[in-house]
Design a protein that fits this description.
The structure is a homotetramer.
Chain A (H helix, E strand, L loop, with lengths): L5 H18 L6 H8 L3 H7 L3 H16 L4 H4 L5 H33 L3 H32 L8 H19 L12 H15 L2 H16 L1
Helix pairs in contact in A: 1-2, 1-4, 4-6, 4-7, 6-7, 6-8, 6-9, 7-8, 8-9
Chain A binds a DNA duplex (21 and 21 nucleotides) through helix 3.
Chain lengths: ~220, ~220, ~220, ~220
DNA sequence: CATGAATGAGATTTCATTCAT
DNA sequence: TATGAATGAAATCTCATTCAT
């Protein structure tokens, strides 16, 4: 018999995510998760200490699927405007999935709140999820300032913080919308809001040459 | 004693908010709420249909305390920069209380998720809470554009959306911090982030006269 | 509704004792106890913190029924031989009931062993159950020595200890017997063993006058 | 490796005894026993039908270690007083170990109570454990009467029963004591109680010559 | 024979809700 | 209306036992 097959663990996590997605963490039942994963309840407890631990692992695993970065963003030879645009696209494209994931993660709080160690682990993961974005963003902004595309006087940490705050805020507010969401809290809204922010950063020169520069770039 | 004494109802809601604040919605027990409100459990059910209804009412009542607006903000005779500054102060001052309130409100989701009608009510309230801000903000921005303090080409809806997104984003991210929070997610961070946004809106003329103008204004 | 009616508590304890008597403490199920007591499982937990606490209370309540003392034993005007004989009769008469009770109490150990506080409570009760006997016995022996019926050189504490040890030993060993018990571990055995002990205590004078003295006493 | 290696069986029994000693039979887990014995859980079931059977075997094995008899006791050439004294020493020396063993054996009841056949086996073993003592004791007492050291009129079966009852009673009561046990329920108490009993048996002649006789004996 | 992951019946316990007083 | 003892469905978790490897 294979020792604690990872495939089974993955099946359990998938089942748990499904069950939570449907009824929320509060309503998730170990019985139901076991049934969907096609394992016994005992096996659930062989893999995870408790219901809380399973739900925490479910949230953390869910992160893996949503923390993705477009390769183009990391290419330092590209024009900074394109790199920022690619980042915006990445964020906008994943927006709806992340909104759903986010609503679940928020619910996990009430389940995990009881155990300080799990709370710490969850919050730490939630903080970590955006750290990559912040760092990436700062390095792009620095490159932009160096190349003269972005205004030299911008306060990079504040701008990066605001970029992320806007994104988080839209994400958060999107969770309040149902059925017919306010367009501001859709992928299009993400593009518009972060596009506006990018505009503010451009140097006067970049502003003048924008159209031509971008066109050359595209044709290259 | 009049039926459904409002005083008793208020006592119940206060007790419920306390209990939820301490242990989260998941851990809130009707027994404990009744004990703190100094009423019987039966009385709880005379005022509220169910535990879910009580918790929903608790969240909604909690909104009342946090949706406050500084009178100065609404005074159209003031300089727009002061009105925006007053709004920022209002948001920054209430920040920590709202963060706590917000974490509770998020948890409430998992409790009311099961009932579509309650879910609608909660989400609607959550949407409404910021509507006042958005409208107020837009009217200030319009006044600013009219008076020449703000740049004429700004896209007021986008700017207002971003203002609120930044605020919401900081609020949301602040919920992930514990003990030694990142300064970006503190009242000071609110001032810095929204201050930066305000900067972007000023017209060239306002930018030049800022120091003197503000000084005159203050002395007036 | 009467507040925690003692009658209900008593019904629960009775049901618990019945269930334990039949299958042992290990096999006692809260469901079954609730069913027999004609209360809900929840009510069981309104009266008793846990299963352990209920079983402990059951054992302690069981003591009440078996710690009985013959009034005659306490009458200091009677001849010491008669008082000792009455005590022996008391112990022999209750013997079979106490044997059954004892076997249950022993089983309770394994259930209650986990909780140090309960263990202490149980052991303390088990010690206390015989304290009355020891004290009573010592006062009778002292009276016997004073009246010259018992030998003056007897070591009263040692004799009292041995009296109780013999009784406890027979009680304990009786628990090992089934169906066709060794006569030594029956009420008759109790009379014989403790009768022998009493014999050893009589003074030479009492020994000579025994037949006549007792006869007079009986006729008095 | 021979099938059902006795060494492995012994390791299992030792592990089981350790586990039971620490937490009691109720708390003993097959997992833990297997871990300590360094075998798999499956192997446990190759050696023992069930948990009950293993625990029963554990109690029975525990008996082997405690049913020991001093060789001197069996030597018919010695003075009966010395043989009884040696027996008392044997019982007193092993007292504390037997007390612990006894407490475990009592707990075993609740585990094996469910199975009549195991119950019979356990009770039979518990009866057998003292049979050797009784027989040995009776043969010593008979030798004592024949040699004139013990009073000729003693009722040997009753005396033997009482000797064993006193010992069992002290053993049993010792199980109720914790930390600071009553001296009556210690090895010293065993010596005192059984010493008193021996005293009652001596013939007048033996009583007179006791000091000198024993001294000679010791010097021989 | 040995292993130990998997099983799943069944145990204890909780707590929102009810309703007789 | 207020009370709070009683309810019991339903939840989590345990652990002796099995059996494919």
């Amino acid at each position: 018999m294979p020792p604690h097959s990872p495939e089974k663990k993955s099946r359990i996590l998938t089942a748990a995510r499904e069950v939570c997605s449907e009824g929320g963490y509060e309503a998730a039942r170990m019985d139901e998760i076991a049934r969907r994963a096609e394992v016994s309840k005992g096996t659930l407890y062989n893999f995870f200490e408790s219901k809380e631990a399973l739900l925490l692992a479910t949230v953390l695993a869910s992160h893996q699927d949503y923390v993705v970065i477009l390769p183009a963003v990391e290419d330092p030879t590209l024009d900074v405007r394109d790199r920022l645009a690619a980042l915006i696209e990445s964020l906008a494209d994943g927006f709806e999935g992340i909104v759903r994931h986010n609503m679940l993660a928020q619910q996990a709080w009430s389940v995990v709140l009881g155990s300080p160690s799990m709370r710490k682990e969850l919050l730490s993961a939630l903080r970590a999820i955006y750290t990559g974005y912040i760092e990436q963003l700062q390095s792009i902004l620095e490159a932009g300032v160096r190349s003269g595309v972005l205004r030299s006087e911008i306060d990079i940490p504040v701008v990066a913080t605001n970029w992320l705050a806007i994104y988080s805020g839209l994400l958060y507010r999107a969770g309040f919308e149902e059925d017919d969401p306010n367009p501001a809290y859709t992928p299009a809204g993400v593009r518009q809001s972060l596009g506006w922010l990018t505009e503010q950063l451009l140097s006067d020169e970049a502003r003048k040459t924008r159209a031509s520069a971008r066109e050359e770039n595209t044709h290259a």
